[in-house]
Structure formats: structure tokens, C-alpha cells
Design goal:
The chain is an alpha/beta fold and 194 residues long. The protein has one domain: 3-Layer(aba) Sandwich (Rossmann fold), CATH 3.40.50. It has helices at residues 10-21, 34-43, 77-80, 84-87, 93-100, 115-120, 140-152, 165-169, 183-189, and strands at residues 2-6, 25-29, 46-49, 68-71, 105-108, 132-137, 156-161. Strands 2-1-3-4-5-6-7 form a seven-stranded mixed sheet, sandwiched between helices. The model has no long low-confidence stretch (mean pLDDT 93).
Length: 194
């Protein structure tokens, strides 16, 4: 599979290594060069966004149309400035990303794990205490794609629900954000059947 990663910080570069290690064709771009970003997005079957949330409006719309887009961003008012609709909890950050990328299929994942834990706890088999990663999304096919990629790199994927309700369960400030949990413990904290 061709995976385009937009954002060359800790999360983006860590994911690019993991995906390449399991055999995917990966292209990585920082967000500063618009032509490169469009090229990476156009190349990909799946796009991962790992940029500062406040820059989501710079993401290319046409190049990701019809594709699963994995949103690894988090809203941080200290870094991003204030967004009234997020501060008022009227919408989630991933819903805003989905509104901007209106023809793609946004899935929230990789946002609730610390980047160094993403780096250090990957590529474990099922019997070696795998960490779990929550996934939220409204598109079944896109969510299955994201969950399969999570499993491929040695984590357990846990379906947290849709972008609105599920996304609220693993954003900063929640009991599962940055917590190292097994799938069983994550499901319990999400109040899902185990």
C-alpha cells in the first residue's frame, strides 16, 4: 500500500519508519512546501496527517478525495490559538478536519499515544503485552484500513466509535490520553464490551 504522511515531526517520522518496515511504500512531507504536500497526498492510497492542528486548512482537498485520511493531530489552544467551536465542545478537532477534507474519509488515530511510546512499543506480537490505540471514524472502510495498519505495526486497534462521540473519548485531557493500556484495559476505560 502507498502511504503518504503529511508532517515530518516525531509522529510522522516514527510512523513512516514503522510502515516502511512492514513493507509499505511510504512518502513523507513536511507541511511547508505546498507542491510537495500535494505530490505526497496524490501518490498515496492512505494519507496520515501529523501536523500542528491549527494548520489543517492548508491540507490539500482534491488530492485526498475518496481516500482514508488518518488524523493524528490534537488541538492545543496554547500552540494552536483558540478555536471557539472546540473550546465550547461543539465539535471535535477531527470533525473540523473532516469538514475541510469533505470528500475524504477521516479517521482519528495515533493521537492518544506519546510519540516515544509509538516508537518504542511497536512490532510486538499479540502475546508480548501489546499497547492499544483507539480509533474513531464514521466511514467503515476507512476505519478498517486504519485498524489494519495499527495491527500491522504491532499495536492492538480498538474501535472507539464515530468521530464526534468516539473522538471525544481519546482527545487530550481524557483518561486514556497518553495512557499505556492493553486492549482490554482500553475497552474498559472506553466503557466498551471486552
Amino acid at each position: 500500500m502507498r502511504i503518504g504522511i503529511l508532517g515530518a515531526g516525531h509522529v510522522g517520522t516514527t510512523l513512516s519508519r514503522h510502515f516502511a518496515l512492514v513493507g509499505h511504500d511510504v512518502s513523507l512531507s513536511g507541511l511547508l512546501v505546498a507542491r510537495t504536500v500535494r505530490s505526497v497526498a496524490g501518490f498515496a492510497d492512505v494519507v496520515v496527517i501529523a501536523i500542528p492542528f491549527s494548520r489543517y486548512r492548508e491540507l490539500p482537498v482534491a488530492e485526498v478525495a475518496g481516500k482514508p485520511v488518518i488524523d493524528a493531530t490534537n488541538y492545543d489552544p496554547d500552540l494552536d490559538g483558540h478555536f471557539a467551536e472546540l473550546d465550547g465542545d461543539r465539535v471535535t478537532s477531527s470533525e473540523l478536519v473532516q469538514s475541510h477534507l469533505c470528500r475524504s474519509q477521516v479517521v482519528k488515530a495515533f493521537n492518544a499515544i506519546r510519540w516515544d511510546h509509538l516508537r518504542d512499543h511497536a512490532h510486538r506480537d499479540r502475546f508480548a503485552g501489546r499497547r492499544a490505540i483507539p480509533v474513531s471514524g464514521d466511514h467503515v472502510r476507512a476505519k478498517k484500513t486504519a485498524m489494519a495498519l495499527i495491527e500491522e505495526i504491532g499495536f492492538d486497534a480498538v474501535d472507539a466509535g464515530g468521530l464526534a462521540r468516539g473522538g471525544r473519548k481519546h482527545q487530550p485531557g481524557t483518561p486514556i490520553y497518553a495512557a499505556d493500556l492493553t486492549a482490554r484495559d482500553l475497552r474498559a476505560r472506553l466503557h466498551l464490551a471486552t
